[in-house]
Amino acid sequence: MNDDDLIRAIGIDLGGSAIKSGLVSSNGSINGFSRVTIDRMAGSEYLLENLQAEIDRLTALAEERGLQLIGVGVGSPGSIERSTGRIHKSPNFRGWDDFPLRDKLVKMTPLPVYLANDVNAAAMGELKFGAGGDFRNFIMITLGTGVGGALVIHGRLYDGAEGFAGEIGHMVIAPDGPECPCGNNGCLEQFVGAPALVRRARELLEKIDLTGPLAQIDPEEITVEEIGLAAADGDPVARAVLAEMGRWLGIALISLINVLDPDCILVGGGIAQAGPPLFDVIRRTVGNHAMSGAARVVPIITATLGPRAGTAGAGALALWPELTASG
Ligand SMILES: [Zn+2]
Predict the structure, then answer these.
(1) How does DSSP classify residue 98?
(2) Starting at the edge strand that comes first in sequence, how are the strands of the sheet with 156-158 ordered?
(3) In this predicted structure, what is the pLDDT of residue 78?
(4) Which residue ranges make up each domain of the chain?
(5) What kind of architecture, by CATH, is found in domain 3-129?
C-alpha cells in the first residue's frame, strides 16, 4: 500500500432529512458511512451540533485506522456565496438563510474546509466516480421536490462569478406560469418538481375515470415514487404525467444544449429511475428542436451514484479542490 492509498477526505452531504457522511478515498470508496436523520426545522444550532458530531466521529475513525485526512467537504442545500461561504437562501432549513456556514465549519476542525451547493457536490461525485467520468462537459439535473442543476465545463465544476450558477430549476420557461418561491413566474421547477407532478396526477385522475394502478391509491397519498412505478406498469395517468414532464424538461434542455453544447446530460433523483416513459419524451423533444449543430445526439443518461453521490461528491470537493472555483 502506498501513501496515496491512505489519503481520505471527510465527505458530508447535508440533506433535507439526513446528514450522510463518510471517509472518501480517491477511488470513491467510502469508509464509515453513516446516515443520521435530522429535523430540518430544529434550527441552525442543532444542525451545527450534528455536523460537529460527524466531523469528530470521522476524525477519530481516520486516526484509529491510520488514514491521512486532507480536508472536509460539505454539500449543503441553498445558494452559497463563494467568497464569504454564507448560505444566501435555503428553503429547506429553518434558520439557514444568510447563514455563515463556512465560518462555523472552519471552527469545527483544523482541516481545510470546502463548501458547495449540494447539487454541485453531487456533480463532482459523478465527474470523479460516476457517469460523468467519461465526459469533460456535462449538465447535471436533479429531480426532486426542488429541481437542481450543476455544470461541468472543460472537466471542472463551473459555479459562476459567485457560486450561484447552475440553477436550472429556476430557468423561466413560461413567463405567465405559476408563481415560484424564488419570486419569478413559470420556473422549470413549477412544472417538473415533485409537488407539481403529484398535483397534475390528481387533476388527471379526477378528469378521467380509470382503473389503472394509480387510480387505486388515495389521491392524498400519491407520491412521485408511485407515479414512477405506475408508469413502469403502463398506467396511463402516470405515463401522461411523465410525458408532460419530459416535454418541459426537453424544452429547458434545448436551450441549455444550444448555449453550452455539452457532451452529455446527466439526470439524477428518484424519478429518473422511471426510465423510458420519461427519457423517451425528453430525447424526442430535444431531437425535434435543438439547433442542427448541437442536434447531434447528446446522450441523456441517468446519474449512477445514487444515494451516496452527495457524500462521495462532498469528499471530492476536498480531494480535488483545483477542479472547483474555490481551489
Ligand atoms: Zn424559481
Answers:
(1) T
(2) 156-158, 147-153, 138-143, 264-268, 300-302
(3) 87
(4) 3-129, 133-304
(5) 2-Layer Sandwich (3.30)
| Sequence-separated (6 or more) residues with CB below 8 Å from residue 78 | 87, 88, 89, 90, 91, 92, 93, 96, 97, 117
The CA–CA distances, whole Å, from 270 to 27, 144, 267 equal: 25, 7, 10
Q: What is the pTM of this model?
A: 0.91
Mean pLDDT of 254-272: 91
* Cα 155 to middle of ligand 1, angstroms: 28
What DSSP state is assigned to residue 309? Answer: H
* Distance from residue 176's CA to the centre of ligand 1 (Å): 13
How far, in Å, is the centroid of ligand 1 from the Cα of 199?
A: 18
In the chain, where does DSSP find H-type helix? Answer: 44-65, 101-106, 118-129, 189-192, 194-207, 224-232, 236-260, 276-289, 309-319
CA of 58 to the centre of ligand 1 (A): 37
pLDDT digits (tens, 9 = 90+) for 88-122: 877 667 888 889 999 999 999 999 999 999 999 99
For residue range 202-256, list pLDDT tens digits in order. Answer: 999 888 767 778 888 888 889 998 898 899 888 999 999 999 999 999 999 999 9
Ligand 1 center from residue 183 Cα (angstroms):
6
CATH code matching the domain that covers 133-304, chosen among 3.20.20.140, 3.40.50.720, 3.30.420.40, 3.40.1740.10: 3.30.420.40
Collapsing DSSP states into helix, strand and coil, what is residue 286?
A: helix
User: Parallel, antiparallel, or unpaired: how do β-strands 86-89 and 79-81 relate?
Assistant: antiparallel
Say yes or no: do domains 3-129 and 133-304 share a fold.
Answer: yes
First to last CA, the chain: 28
At 24-67, the pLDDT tens digits run 999 999 999 999 999 988 888 999 999 999 999 999 999 999 99
Count of Cβ atoms closer than 10 Å to residue 83 Cβ: 9
Instruction: Compute, in angstroms, the gap from residue 186 CA to the centroid of ligand 1.
Output: 7
